[in-house]
Amino acid sequence: MTKRFAALGMMLAGALTLAACDAIPGMGGGEAALDIPEIAPGELSEATMKDVTRLLSSDAFEGRMPGTPGEEKTIALLTERFKAAGLQPGNGESWVQEVPLVEITGRNYAPLTITGKGGTQSFAFGKDWVGVTYREEAKTTLKDSELVFVGYGINAPERGWNDYAGLDVKGKTVVILVNDPDWQSEGLEGTFNGKAMTYYGRWTYKYEEAARQGAAGALIVHDTAPASYGWNVVESSWTGPQAYAQRGDNAPPLTQMNGWIQKDAARKVLEAAGQDLDALTKAAQQKGFKPVPLGLTAATSFESTFRSFVSHNVIGILPGSEAPEEYVLHTAHWDHLGRCTPAPDGDDICNGAVDNATGTAALVALAEAHAKAGPPRRSLVFLAVTAEESGLLGATYYAQNPIFPLAQTVGGINMDAFQMAGRAKDVTVVGPGKSQLDLFLDAALKADGRAATPNPKPEAGYYYRSDHFAFAKLGVPMLYIDGGEDLIEGGREAGAKIAADYTENRYHGPKDEFDENWDWSGVMADLQLFFRIGRMMATSSSWPNWNEGDEFKAIRDQSCAASAKGC
């Protein structure tokens, strides 16, 4: 999970204000034409949720890192449970789709040294900075690479914005701010959608653009608020083995090294250049910002070992009774971080119980419930994807190599980390107002007597940070719904406290472990909601689309126009 838990602990004070400025579900056009049937509650098993979550997050699965024995155990368990639930193999006669990956493990890191007229500063790996290479090279050496501050590192011609204007960064290292320029706005109006993050604010984009510009290195300045997670998350996620999709011919260019630098360390670097981080940040938020050469050079080195391997997406299907070639998708990622930075007690297994053994267990529980209810009109697909923690690699591979054509995929629901907070009066909708799937959500919420709370922190860009995004950017309408914030016992204050505790003490760390004392009532209520929505889509005859003006509508329309079947 890449994720929204980190924001919930900070959202309490502004929740009501944000609810007023984010979009509300059901605002899209064409509502009257949609066929949204009523659906009876499903027979959902809390025992299944507990059993599968407990097993997947046990030490025996070693943190479910792709390409390890933990993956083998995960694939075997999911295959067994999908089959027992009543599903059929989703890839012909196979339960899996192969996903070719390469694992790169950095070691023997030298400090990051910054040299200028005033001398040399040295920053320790892990504590002050982290870095990786995407290149399959045994030795990475960044030597005397000129540092340039490039603001938010965005080149967006359609928005009249180019932080690289007039700059040649070949061989240089760019220093980049996290998020996009107007993330601190109160509303959602602005060059980069105001408070709501665009894809230009994501770290993935910033590294890709730096590579396109020819940079040798890219360092993103970590700041907890705009990143929406602390340095502990960066350190645990960017150290140890890193999995990437294997690169084919004519692949895009790569930097030598991509990394993050602590905000305090970045401040010291800029001070050595006679610059102030706060002043540069303010300048970078204005249209027409020009990059700033810093008169400093960066150097570091590290070694890498490589392992090419094949990971797997697990796919089960419940064929439809009348329109089996129309598909409704349920997704969750089965992977986690494997062995990671040890806790004070020496525990180094990131078990990923909440993130995302719970979501993976939900696939099994939903499969059981739908099978018991009998095949709906359309086919239901249950897809457990690999390598989400490495950058949505399994979901992206499936979306680019779909077993079931995307033009024949009605839409889907993504499940990523259920909150163990008890029942809530609401659910949190990440990316509300984007598609007509909101209308299915509205109907399901009404049936359950609950409400929708818009994403409380749109500047975090959560819609671009989990597996549904891989499908959305290729046109498939996708819902991303998280647990509610207004708890029946304790309200929003209690919800924020529980979320903050998870973020600070367990998220992406060794203490995200199964707890026999968890309260599953809220999870099961959310699961019932997902059952209703999936069943509605699978029973309906409608093809919901993205709302007018959404960035994904054009590609969906193009996909539909080219298809003789489906939408």
Strand content: 15-25%
> Could you state the CATH homologous superfamily of the largest domain?
Zn peptidases
Give the rounded overall mean pLDDT.
Answer: 91
CATH topology of the largest domain: Aminopeptidase
Instruction: Estimate percent helicity.
Output: 25-40%
Unreliable parts? 2-31
Task: Please tell me the CATH architecture of the largest domain by its name.
Answer: 3-Layer(aba) Sandwich
How large, in whole angstroms, is the Cα Rg?
23 Å
Count of helix runs: 16
**Number of β-strand runs:** 21
Report on this structure.
- This protein is an alpha/beta fold and 567 residues long.
- It has two domains: 28-100 and 311-561, Zn peptidases (Aminopeptidase, 3-Layer(aba) Sandwich), CATH 3.40.630; 104-306, 3-Layer(bba) Sandwich (Glucose Oxidase, domain 1), CATH 3.50.30.
- Helices cover 29% and strands 23% of the residues.
- The chain is built from 16 helices and 21 strands.
- It has helices at 5-8, 15-21, 46-56, 69-85, 203-212, 224-227, 231-237, 263-272, 277-284, 353-373, 393-400, 437-448, 468-472, 491-505, 521-539, 553-561; strands at residues 88-89, 96-107, 112-116, 119-123, 129-132, 139-149, 155-156, 161-162, 173-177, 217-221, 242-245, 257-261, 292-318, 323-333, 338-339, 349-350, 378-385, 409-414, 426-429, 451-454, 478-483.
- The strands form three sheets. It has a 17-stranded mixed beta sheet that branches. It has a two-stranded antiparallel ribbon with strand order 7-8. Strands 15-16 form a two-stranded antiparallel ribbon.
- Helix 4 packs parallel to helix 10 (353-373), helix 10 (353-373) packs across helix 15 and helix 12 packs across helix 15.
- The protein is globular and about 75 Å long.
- The protein starts with a helix and ends in a 6-residue tail after the last helix.
